[in-house]
Design goal:
2 helices, 58 residues
Length: 58
Amino acid sequence: MENIDPQIYTEIEQMISSSDSVVGIDAKKTHIIIIHKLMAIEKRLAALEAALPTEKQE
């Protein structure tokens, strides 16, 4: 598993924690954060792919 900077870890932990939840996190907020990050990654990947030269079809 990738090592996460302790400060970043604590920031994320504080963002998603919920004392109202049995598991200790706000599942909706957690999923929104994950989906938002995935959308940002997808956008960056599309930009990188668009910048690549296209292969000629034979």
